[in-house]
Amino acid sequence: MVFHKLFQPSQLRRLCLIGLVAFVGAGTVTAQFRARTVPGRGQKVDRVGDDFEAEDWEFYPNPPKASSNLDKQDRLPSGISKNQRIYESTYRGEPDVVKRVPTPPGGIPGSNGALLLQSLYTGVPNFISRKQQQDDLLVNVTTMLGGPISVNQNPSCVVRVYLPPWEQWERRTGSSFGFRVELETTKTETVKTQFRRMFRGEGFPTTTTKVEQYWPGFFIQFHSKTDGHKEDSAMLLIRAGSRGEEVPGPMITEPGWWTLGISVTPDGLVHYYAHSGIEPLTERDHISTQRPYGFTAQRMTTFFFNVVNMDDGRSMSTPWIVDDPTLYINTR
Length: 332
Prior knowledge:
Blueprint lengths: L8 H27 L7 E2 L14 E2 L7 H4 L8 E2 L4 E3 L8 E6 L10 E6 L13 E8 L2 H4 L3 E2 L5 E8 L10 E23 L6 E12 L2 E7 L9 E7 L6 E7 L3 E9 L5 E7 L9 E5 L8 E12 L9 E10 L3
Antiparallel strand pairs: 1-19, 2-3, 4-7, 5-6, 6-19, 7-18, 8-18, 9-15, 9-19, 10-11, 10-12, 10-18, 12-13, 13-14, 15-16, 16-17
C-alpha cells in the first residue's frame, strides 16, 4: 500500500512537523550532553592545588582569624600555607585545625599525606554565637596564574574527600562540609540618577553594570540519629538552582572516600559530578547542571572548602580530610 494514500495531505504535513520537532529536540539534548565537561578532563594546572606529599608541609594561621561576614573584620595578615598554595578567607576565616596527616586507608594510590580540616570556634574570635557558622579555606588560583580563569577555558576542579565513621561526626543534623567555586559575572542594574525631571521630581532611569561574585558548589549534610533519624547517614546538596534553592543530590549511607568535581563551560553553566571512591570521574557521575541564581558565569577566581559546626564552644566539627585538590582547563 502506498504511504501517501494512508493519510490526507494535512495529516502528512502534521506528521512531518512532529518529526522535525522531535529531530531538533533530540539534537538539542545531544548538544547539551556534549557541551558538559567532566571535571578532571583536559590539562592539569600544576601551579594550582596541592597533593600534600611534602613532609614539611605547614600552615601558618596568623590568628586571630577573619570574621568579616559577621563583624566586618578581616584581621590581616591572613593565614597561608608554607608553599602559598592554600590560604585563609578574609570573609569567614580559616578552620581552627589545618594540618597535614597520613592519608586514610583507601585513598589515592601512593598518597602518603592529606589535609585535616576541623573547627570548634567558627564565628567571631572570642565570642560564642550559638548559631551554625562556618570557616573557609581557599585554593590559591589568581595569584598563581596572574588572574582569574575565563569560562572559555572550561575550568574544572576535583578533590577527594574522606568521610569519617559516623561516630566521629558532630551530633547535629545539618550541613557539615562544603566544596565550592568562586565565580564572577557581570550584572546590569537599573538605577535612577540624581538629576530630576522638571515638574515630576524623579530621577532619570539609567543602567549600570557591576561584577557579581557567587559561590556554587556541594555541601555534605549529615542526618543524625540523635535528631530522630533511624540511622546515621548523609547526602549531597547542590547549591544552587536558578532561584538560589538547594538541589538534593545522592544519599550517602556508608562513610569513606568520595570524589567531588565541578566544571564550568563557556555557556556559563555549572556542572556537578560525584561518586563514592577515588577513581576519576566519568560522564556517568553527572548529578546536576545548573545556572545558579540565574547568573551566567564568566570567570572562575578560586575554589575552596567550608567547615561547618554549631558555634557553641563545645561542639567540635566533623574531622574532614581532603586530598589532591586539583584544577584543570580544557581549551578544545
